[in-house]
Amino acid sequence: MENPAKFISQVRAEVGKITWPTRREVITTTIMVLIMATLASIFFFLVDLAIKSGLAALLGFVG
C-alpha cells in the first residue's frame, strides 16, 4: 500500500489537470439535452400511437 500523503498529492495533481466546462458550455449542453429529450419523447409517443391505432384497427377488423 502506498503512502497516504503521496496518494493525496497524486490526486491533487490529477484534479489540477481537469478542464472544467464554462458556464456557457454547461447551459448550452443542458439546453441541447432538453431539446433532444423532448424530440425523443414526441417521436416515441407518435410511434406508440401508431402501433396502438394499428392494433386497434386490426383487432376491430378481426374481432
Automatic annotation (TrEMBL):
Localization (cell): Cell membrane; Membrane
GO molecular-function terms, A-Z: protein transmembrane transporter activity
GO CC, one annotated term: plasma membrane
Keyword annotations of the record: Cell membrane, Membrane, Protein transport, Translocation, Transmembrane, Transmembrane helix, Transport
Main location: membrane
TM helices/strands, residue ranges: 26-47
Membrane topology, record value: Single-pass membrane protein
Keyword Transcription regulation: no
GO BP annotation list: intracellular protein transmembrane transport; protein secretion; protein targeting; protein transport by the Sec complex
UniProt function note: Essential subunit of the Sec protein translocation channel SecYEG. Clamps together the 2 halves of SecY. May contact the channel plug during translocation.
PANTHER family for this protein: PROTEIN TRANSLOCASE SUBUNIT SECE
Family designation: Belongs to the SecE/SEC61-gamma family.
Quaternary structure note: Component of the Sec protein translocase complex. Heterotrimer consisting of SecY, SecE and SecG subunits. The heterotrimers can form oligomers, although 1 heterotrimer is thought to be able to translocate proteins. Interacts with the ribosome. Interacts with SecDF, and other proteins may be involved. Interacts with SecA.
Protein's name in the database: Protein translocase subunit SecE
Source organism (scientific name): Paracoccus lutimaris
Organism lineage string: Bacteria, Pseudomonadati, Pseudomonadota, Alphaproteobacteria, Rhodobacterales
